[in-house]
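Quick illustration, no need to memorize.
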Amino acid sequence: MLALTEVHPCLWYCCPLLKAYLAVIMIQFENSSDQKSLPRKQLTSMLDKWFLLARKGQMLPQQMVYYFDLITRVSYREGFVILLDVWQYFQVQFFSFFLFCYFKILKNTKIFPQNFCNYLYH
């Protein structure tokens, strides 16, 4: 997947995989036996890889890139709440992407994810 991040719109097509990986991380945050402790190194390593993919694939806004540093310094419970915010962001973004594609299909125009990105961020 790291290779797909080099060509901007490609990672958008792998969104279900990226969301599944995020869900695995969130479950581990939520199911930790000691909710008040800091996340363990293995889990922060997984999270670092996820943020790297999302950042390089231009799927996260710049403000959310800093969430990783924050999550590594807070408890499991607080980290889960932050990740929930990221999850909700993805839900809204990709519902919008679905609608964008649907209307493009109705207009019989080609669908390019970069057009969607331009539509969202400008």
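The chain has a mean pLDDT of 81.
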